[in-house]
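User: I'm writing a short report section on ligand binding and want a predicted complex to refer to. Could you take this sequence and S-adenosylmethionine and write out the structure as tokens? A short remark afterwards would be nice.
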Amino acid sequence: MNPWNNVPAADYERHMSHETVGQLAELNEITREKVEQRYPQTVAVYGACTGNGLAHFVDARTVYAVDINPAYLAICHDRYDPILNELVLVQADINHDVVPIPADSVDLIICHLFLEYVDLERAFASFRQVLRPGGLLNIVLQRSNDTGWVSNTGVTTLRPVAAIAHEVPDETLRQHALPEFRFAGSQTYRMPNGKSLVSYDFINGEVAQSTSEESTDFEWPEW
Ligand SMILES: C[S@@+](CC[C@H](N)C(=O)[O-])C[C@H]1O[C@@H](n2cnc3c(N)ncnc32)[C@H](O)[C@@H]1O
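Assistant: Sure. The structure tokens for the complex follow:
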């Protein structure tokens, strides 16, 4: 049994929104930026969880929400089906199942804090299958910076996921992306708990428009 199936949605959101973690808001903002860069018609969100960021896709034709946990997807449906044109829930274990999204159909893949828990080969095989030529793959990875994988927010139900978590080094990510996905830039966001989020853009089969790395480091405002 994958430990993500045992993490209650409310606990996940409480942990991720905790003032020392603050990741939900930052991930949501990254998604908004990608939508404004691309105005995608078809989007696939891998590790969609309870749908953080889906509200930005109101102008898209189709949004696929992929997750192993059916309870999370049910919440996605309740929250976002009423405001999206077409929300397709894909309950799948990326490590074992084929993700049934039509080949070469997706303009934007959002993959935030997902690769750390899954088989990289399987995940990239799925991205290659569904992302259209010229489409954008946005990946966000967590860097723990020696603070431990799961921050102490008082939420204990998340601790078991640390057992399957693995930090994905920059070089490993880029190797998996080659040869089709061309690196197109990255940005690091420093979080209040000492961790960082790194957002990477890859373009399917196109010469990268920009190869500038680490263009901006954001400092979280104090409150
Ligand atoms: C850290 S959460 C993702 C956070 C989310 N992207 C956000 O912006 O808030 C990881 C998600 O990946 C899902 N997941 C983990 N392993 C999976 C697998 N093997 N197949 C599909 N989904 C998986 C979990 O259920 C969980 O919703």
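A remark for your report: Residues 2, 4, 24, 27, 47, 49, 52-53, 67-69, 72, 92-95, 112-114, 117-118 surround S-adenosylmethionine (CB under 6 Å). The first strand starts at residue 42 and ends at 46.
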